[in-house]
Amino acid sequence: MIKYKTFIEDLNCEKPYFYFSTPQYELLADGLMYEMNFSDFTALRKKVNHYLHSDGLRGKVLVGAIPFDSNLPGSVFLTSNWKIDCLGYNNRKIDEWQQNIIQPIQLREVPECEEYTEAVRMAVKDINEKVYKKIVLARGLEIIYQEDIEVSHILKRIYSSNQSGYTYATNIYGDYTLAGASPEMLISKRDRYISSNPLAGSRPRGKNCEEDERYAEELCKSEKDLCEHSIVVEYISSKFKEICKELHFSQKPSLLKTKQMWHLSTIISGTLLADTNVIDLATLIHPTPAICGVPVDKTRNRIKELEGFNRNLYTGIIGWCDENGDGDWAIILRGSEIYRNRVNIFAGAGIVKDSNPAEELAETNAKLSTMLFNLGIIKK
Ligand SMILES: C=C(O[C@@H]1C=C(C(=O)O)C=C[C@H]1O)C(=O)O
């Protein structure tokens, strides 16, 4: 029997220029690329529309990652060197990629836990004073190794443990690899059909079945988490209402589980009134309150003050756009920046009026565990 290997399983020691997969397909873009720089989202939209209307994307695909902050410059890439393949059911065995995992010599919190809980306290105060309604605050871990780590092993582990989410890896942004296992699709577009699947409101998975079910049940009933979730659904659905003739979403969120987390989830879908490309759609709704806050400008500025580090591409978006303006863009979450012997990982939590600093810290720890597991630092 011929053993079918996916693009990611087929990697030897090389790092892919750009890799993106969903449970249904995987896309790999490699080789020569044209870099399209942009100064902000408005400039990006203009350039992409120009390319699409002048047939400049024929046979090509646009791939890349767009920063969290829409006022910052960035770049996306155009290439004819790309392939896409269906992913049917395949048995992703993480154990196969257990070998060659090295352990770090140092882990450093950026910022320190106490600074993070203090930032949450300040945000709750802002919310009580009605400065804003919700804000997402993140923190990071810097992981140092004695020697350079083998990126292709880590990618195989990320892919294998992320059967139901979006796996991404790119090497086109300088001297590091951005790679992770995002659970959240910002926008998907095929012809006139569009959908978004925001997540907000979270619990860790339990240590046993009983605890796991209890956490899931608690999440479904939690007023605080339901409120956190409804803010995001309201934001995206009101943006979609302006551009869609039909809009569908359930009034009650469902549960989505990853290996490490439970999330409240809502699929919002619609049919576009006029053909709009996926970059226009992504930049219309990004950053959503799932990773930024309400109102957007106020919370984006406050995030810079309270977090004390630069998010860059973390909580930005990653994906592709084809010659028809179709494509998928996921939020850059549960990811890592891998530099030779150093890895930076990040995680955030949504803060609303009833947030408790210690619980939000625990939530970020649970989210960080996705990459800690993929790096082989923790066992589960
Ligand atoms: C910010 C992160 O996650 C986001 C925040 C969530 C929440 O507050 O419940 C859930 C999923 C994501 O939208 C992260 O994973 O770093």
From TrEMBL:
Keyword RNA-binding found: no
Superkingdom, taxonomy of origin: Bacteria
Domain Chorismate-utilising enzyme C-terminal: 114-367
Enzymatic reactions: chorismate = isochorismate
GO molecular function: isochorismate synthase activity
UniProt GO BP: salicylic acid biosynthetic process
Pfam families to which the protein is assigned, alphabetical: Chorismate_bind
InterPro entries: ADC_synthase (IPR005801), Chorismate_C (IPR015890), IsoChor_synthase (IPR004561)
Keywords: Isomerase
EC class of the enzyme, as a word: isomerase
Listed EC numbers: 5.4.4.2
Family: Belongs to the isochorismate synthase family.
Name of this protein: isochorismate synthase
Species whose genome carries this gene: Anaerocolumna xylanovorans DSM 12503
Lineage: Bacteria, Bacillati, Bacillota, Clostridia, Lachnospirales
